Amino acid sequence: METTNKARIIAFYLPQFHPIPENDMWWGKGFTEWTNVAKAKPLFKGHYQPKIPADLGFYDLRMTEAREAQARLAQESGIEGFCYWRYWFGKGKELLESPFKEVLESGKPNFPFCIGWANHSWSSKTWEKGTSKVSDVMLMEQTYIESEYVDHFYELLPAFKDHRYITVDGKPLFVVFDPMAIPDASVFINTWQDLAVKNGLQGIHFVGIMSNLSGFKYDDNKEKHYYAVSATEPASARYQQVLDLGFDAVNSRGLFRAELKVKGRFQKYIREVLKRVFKYDALNIFKYKDIIKYLFVPEDSWENVYPTLLPNWDRSARSGRKANIYHNSTPHLFRRHLEQAIDLIKDKEPEHRILFLMSWNEWAEGNYVEPDLKFGRQYLDVIKETL
C-alpha cells in the first residue's frame, strides 16, 4: 500500500466497551471498561482523573453508529486504520469478538483495519491489575494447540481477504502481543504462511511486539519473570529474538527503558523495599515530558521495526496506587513526540513507515486519543497537522 504521508499510523483498538456474559459473571452485571473509568479518582494534586469522554460519550460498541463515528474521527485525523485486539484463547474460545465480527460482516465502517492477537491469559486482575481487591485467579487461560492453528487461520481468512484489510508489501498485517509466549512460534508462522499462499494471498506480514528493554525472561513453564536490567543495554538483541522466530517485523515498546532512564534502578529498588517490607505503595509518577525523551532507541530506525506512539499513560483507573502514572501529557508534548517518531522513520521505504499508536481507546489505561473533556480533539488535531 503506497502512501504519501510521512507515516502510516495504525491505532490499537480495544473492543471491550460492551457487556459480555463472562464479564457479567466475573465483575458484575453490565461491567465494561467504562466501569473503571468512571470511578477513577485523583491520587495527588493536579492528577487528571477521572478522564471523561467528550464527542463520543460513554459509547457501546454494539452500536453501529458508535463504530462509524470512531472511524470518521480517525480518518479525518490521518490515521490509516485500526488494529482490533482479538482475544482468541484456543480450544475454540474467544471473548469480546462481536464488535469486529459486525465490522467485518456489515462492511461498516468502510475504514482500514488489521488484527492483533492479544495472546495472554485473563485473570481476576486483568481489568484491575495491581489491585488488592481480589486474589489473582485464572479466569481464561491462553493455550497453544498446534492442531488448532489451521482452524484459527481459516476463521480469520475472510478478514484477510477483505478489501479494507491493511497490508504491508502486499501481505495482510497480523500483530502478536507476546511473540515469545508461543511455544512453537516458527511452526505457527510457517503454517499460516503456507495456508495464506494456498488461499491466494502473498503471505502474512507478522509483527511481534517487544520491549526495547524487555527486562523479563520465561522459565520452563512459560511463566514470565521480570529482572533488573541496565537502561543502556542495546535493543538489537531483543528485536532479533522476535525476528529469529520468523516474524517479519517488530513493534517496539519503550516504556520500561524510559522509566529506568528517568528514575534509575535505585529508585525502583527503594520502591520495591517500601512495598514488600513496609507494605507501602508509593505512587509511581513520571513526567510525560521526561518519558518521551527515552521511548525510542536507534534500532527503531531499522527497516523492519515499527515504533510505538504513546499519547499518554495512566493505569490508575484500573490499578489505583499501584499504577505507573505519566503525568501532564499535553497535545503540545505529544506533537514533539510524534515529530521525533517521524524523523526516526523518514528514511524507510514508504510501506514500512509504520507507527503503532497506543492506543485509540484504552481509557482505563489513560491511553487514548479519542476526544475527552479536557483536551477535546487536540491530540487528533496534532496527528492531522503533523502528517
Descriptive account of the structure:
With 387 residues, this protein is α/β, with parallel strands linked by helices. Helix content is 33%, strand content 20%. It has one domain: Glycosidases (TIM Barrel, Alpha-Beta Barrel), CATH 3.20.20.80. It has 12 helices and 20 strands. Strands 1, 2, 3, 4, 7, 8, 9, 12, 14, 15 and 18 form an 11-stranded mixed β-sheet that branches. A 3-stranded mixed β-sheet has the order 13-17-16. It has a two-stranded antiparallel sheet with strand order 5-6.
Shape: globular
Radius of gyration: 20 Å
CATH homolog superfamily: Glycosidases
User: Under the CATH scheme, which class?
Assistant: Alpha Beta
State the separation between the terminal residues, measured CA to CA: 17 Å
CATH topology: TIM Barrel
Number of helices: 12
**Which sheet architecture does the biggest sheet show?**
11 strands, mixed
Strand content: 15-25%
How much helicity do the residues have? 25-40%
Mean pLDDT: 91
Low-confidence stretches: none
CATH architecture: Alpha-Beta Barrel
Counting DSSP E segments of at least 2 residues, the number of strands comes to 20
Structural class: alpha/beta
How many domains? The number is 1
